Amino acid sequence: MLALRPFCECCATPLPGDSRDALICSFECTFCRDCSEQTLKGRCPNCGGELVARPARVGDALSRNPASTERIVKAQGCTQH
């Protein structure tokens, strides 16, 4: 099951479990749409993998399986690829 990390790793924008603006790589690194498109150009700065839309978890599924509370944010932010 996806961890649904709650924040963009670059800018700390909140990304709740039902967010349509969260993008992830195959390792579940998580970024907001703005950082992914403007700064990262669709590539994960950690592994170089493709960033794709994270599936949203909604309704009962989200209440039974809430998003992670673990905050992973790069202190230095992200650099452009």
UniProtKB/TrEMBL annotation:
Pfam families recorded: DUF1272
Protein name (record): DUF1272 domain-containing protein
Highest taxon, organism lineage: Bacteria
Organism: Pseudomonas fontis
InterPro entries assigned: DUF1272 (IPR010696)
